[in-house]
Amino acid sequence: MRKQSTGEALTWGYSKENGPDSWHTSYPIAKGNNQSPVAILSKDVFKDPALLPWFTGYDPGAAKNIRNTGKTLRIAFDDTFDRSVLRGGPLPGIYRLRQLHIHWGSTSDKGSEHVVDAKRHAGEIHLVHWNSSYSNYADALRKTDGVATIAILMEVGKNPKPEMKRIIEEIDAIKTKGKEAPFLNFDPSILFPQNRSYYTYQGSFTTPPCEECVTWIVMKEPISVDEQQMLKLRSLSSNSAEDPHCPLQDNWRPLQPLNNRMIRSTCQ
Question: Which cofactor does it need (predicted)?
């Protein structure tokens, strides 16, 4: 069981002093063999005929709130029963949606965590689900098939996805760390790219404690955002309201070694 004192919870971040290079000192698994994110080279990916399409059934009523955690923007969903679920693809069962969060850079040539064919995107959206065959989320974190995360890469383009607007509109309500606002009636599947083909591999959370319990579903097709939307994300502060504004940006973890893992993709 992992307990964390408030002091310890504050020790990690993305600055030189407490950034990803030092996470392993408090969280040894961060140096494990199955860490994320990784570089994906499409020519080396195993095209697996056994991989199925994946499906989501999300209840918009499960969306609860949007929060500035000081490390990211996070939207929480009600996961007390199989209300918003992910199934199929590489997964053995039904996974419940727990939260969505975003990683982004200080400029639009960086910000994503996964890198595909040497290209780093402006940002990356993660939808975190847990395997409902386990008794609760904490229990799922201890199992190798406990969590499934869909990663959607964001690139700056001419035709931004209008659906991002709903999230961007709430940013003024959560400008500083710890600020939270109701975020109701939201179906995150509107953020998915048209093409549902994906890469998948076994990895970890990209934030401490970096538990190695995640089946990644990385969407091949990025979604389009515009520079104004990225600027809005960068306008968040990683400090609370009492402290000086400190831009919340570059909240991405560098690439981790693939080691002996196989990245698979659908055949199409």
Answer: Zn(2+)
Closest C-alpha to 148, from 164, 129, 167? 129
The CATH number for 130's domain is: 3.10.200.10
> Contact, 40 vs 199, CB < 8 A?
yes
Q: Where in the sequence is the domain holding 135, given as residue range(s)?
A: 24-254
Say how far apart CA 160 and CA 169 lie, in whole Å.
14
Write out the two tokens for 9.
Answer: 């919870």
Apex 123 CA angle, 242 and 146, nearest 5: 90
Instruction: Provide the β-strand partners of residue 40.
Output: 116
Structure tokens at 57: 């059934």
Classify residue 21 as left (phi > 0), alpha (psi -120 to 50) or beta.
Answer: alpha
198 neighbors 266 (Cβ within 8 angstroms) = yes
Encode pLDDT of 196-217 as tens digits.
999 999 999 999 999 999 999 9
User: In the chain, how many domains are there?
Assistant: 1
Q: How many CB atoms lie within 10 A of CB 260?
A: 7
Residues in the chain: 268
Contact 23, 11 (CB under 8 A): no
First to last CA, the chain: 42
Question: Given the DSSP bridges, would you call strands 198-203 and 264-265 parallel, antiparallel or unpaired?
Answer: antiparallel
Q: How far is CA 157 from CA 12, 96, 169, 220, 228, in A?
A: 33, 31, 19, 16, 11
Question: pLDDT for 139-173, tens place per residue?
Answer: 999 999 999 999 999 999 988 888 899 999 999 99
